Amino acid sequence: MKQYVRFAIVATFASAAMARASDLTVDVQGLKDGKGTVLVGVYDRAGDFLKKPMRTSAAAARPDKVRVVIAGLPAGEYALSAFKDDNGNGKLDVNPAGMPIEPYGFSNDAAGSYGPPSYRASLVHLPEGGGSTTITLR
User: Fold this and answer.
1) Which one-letter DSSP state was computed for residue 54?
2) What number of CA atoms fall less than 13 Å from residue 128's CA on the CB side?
3) Would you place residue 19 in the very low, low, confident or very high pLDDT band (cuts 50, 70, 90)?
4) pLDDT digit string (tens) for 32-79?
């Protein structure tokens, strides 16, 4: 019985350490005004990139820069997208040709040619204990 209790205590501490979460601080810069909201999407799988974020966060826009903290992420690799939602509809508005008409950007300030950057080009590493990155809106 004593060994079972000891095992249970060790297992509890081990699983707590494995489940340790980190905070990702995202500075979104390049905002021209304080109108609207900045939305950030976090993706942990290439197949979900720009379709189904695993986590989203938002902050009221301010001129120049806003900081968004995404709390409780496991350490790992993530791709981020951000845009400034000027009209509050919760989505990136595009023109009839499909080009974004609201400011947007990606982690690593990755850029694609004739479309969004790849998931891989947008990956950032979040170490245990947390980290930060900057996205510049275009």
Assistant:
1) S
2) 4
3) low
4) 999 999 999 999 999 999 999 999 999 999 999 999 999 999 999 999
C-beta atoms surrounding 130 within 10 Å: 16
Q: What mean pLDDT, rounded, does the chain reach? A: 90
- The tokens for 58 are 């938002």
Token pair, residue 71, equals 């709390």
Q: Containing H/E element for 99?
A: none
Q: Which two tokens stand for residue 80?
A: 């981020």
CB 113 within 8 A of CB 61: no
Identify how many contiguous H helices and E strands the chain contains and give both numbers: 1, 8
- Measured CA to CA, the distance from residue 122 to residue 118 in angstroms comes to 6
